Known about the structure:
This protein has one domain (3-161): Rossmann fold (3-Layer(aba) Sandwich). It has helices at residues 15-25, 47-58, 74-80, 96-109, 129-137, 148-161; strands at 3-8, 30-36, 65-70, 85-89, 114-118. Helix content is 41%, strand content 18%. The longest helix has 14 residues, at 96-109. Adenosine-5'-diphosphate (ADP) is lined by residues 8-10, 14, 16-17, 20, 88-89, 91, 95, 120, 124-125, 127-129.
Amino acid sequence: xxxxxxxxxxxxxxxxxxxxxxxxxxxxxxxxxxxxxxxxxxxxxxxxxxxxxxxxxxxxxxxxxxxxxxxxxxxxxxxxxxxxxxxxxxxxxxxxxxxxxxxxxxxxxxxxxxxxxxxxxxxxxxxxxxxxxxxxxxxxxxxxxxxxxxxxxxxxxxxxxx
Length: 162
Ligand code: ADP
């Protein structure tokens, strides 16, 4: 059985992430979405909230997609999950340098696990969680970038923290 891990912060999950998840789910028998605690990024949503949002958004993909929290080294997490593949989404040039470096170092840590890069649909490529939050903070519409339920979560969060 081929197991792939798709790690990220998902703060919040966007249509770009969901497109990568849908594509990735065709590549492996099981796709484990790893949600990092990543306190260094000072996320808008707690890891429990992000996990719940991801779970809700992938519910229609069935049992072949699992959502798991992790706060360890990615390669240790992938190994513990029995994965042979790490999926990452690649957006134009912005992601390249960081992803290139990370994949290279991960290869040195564990050469049995391959990093595989996927491109989202062209229309979804510019989407970034960071910009979604920035647009929402200034009262802009984020409905083209996230699902209606996530847009509502972001609006509710901003309304309660203002
Ligand atoms: P990280 O905090 O590790 O950057 P993110 O939650 O931002 O994690 O994203 C997880 C993965 O999804 C990363 O590989 C990122 O490049 C990818 N990704 C995010 N948005 C998009 C998008 N619009 N198109 C393609 N890949 C994306």
